[in-house]
Amino acid sequence: MSRYETDEDQVEALKQWWQKNGTQLLSGILVIVLAWSGWTYWQNTKLNEGLKASAMFEMLQIRQQQGSFGEAMREGLTLMEEQPESPYSTAIAFMVAKHYLEQDKLDLAYENYQWVVNHAPDASLKLVAQLRLVTLYSDQQRFGDAAQLLAQIDETVLSESEKANLAFHRAELAFNQGDLSTARAGYQAVVDNPSTVDSLQNVASIKLADLAE
Is the pLDDT confidence value at 18 over 60? Predict the structure, then answer.
């Protein structure tokens, strides 16, 4: 027997998957870019600084997995102050933002995502932070702030898959504001982009179908 009894069940399951895992897709991008940026940083900085940043990041990852991130967070914040250009500091800022989100301290989460926007050594890392801010603003119905941030994103430095992600967030904002025509065009751009990841393309297709009904 099929896991889903009806097409409607399958559609609803996919929507729920996106709501739960959409941020994790951005996290996947984050991991890949951080791996490359971290290696580049090692090649271009003093060995001791690189070792310190790498060790701090690994320690905080372990603490996060153990549920004791808050106890060691101060050391991570110190590294962010001492080595703001380090991709490890960017990764720590993401971890700090996540920690504050889980505690429902939105202002502090915003602050750390904005820190990434201001200091990230790579455009892809900056985009991840910007899109997370857009999602948070939209969730809080701060549509003006979300629109302003989207308008500031420089598309010329983005890959085609990143442009698809940006188009999806623009469509989501338009939909949340009731601008269905703009939302429809945005979702269509995501579907038409051959570099869109499969999961995002599926969600955009479903949203297009919903708007057509």
Answer: no
Mean pLDDT of 118-129: 90
> 69 and 54, same structural domain?
yes
Answer yes or no: do 35 and 48 share one domain: yes
- Residue at a domain's end among 101, 121, 141: 121
Could you report the per-residue pLDDT of 170-187, keeping only the tens digit for each? Answer: 999 999 999 999 999 999
Domain span at residue 70? 27-121
Task: Tell me which residue of 33, 17, 2, 12 sits closest to 125, measured CA to CA.
Answer: 33
Yes or no: say if 75 and 56 are a contact pair by the CB < 8 Å rule.
Answer: yes
Count other Cβ atoms within 10 Å, centred on residue 54: 16
pLDDT, tens digit, for every residue of 33-63?
555 555 555 555 555 666 677 777 788 778 8
pTM of the model: 0.74
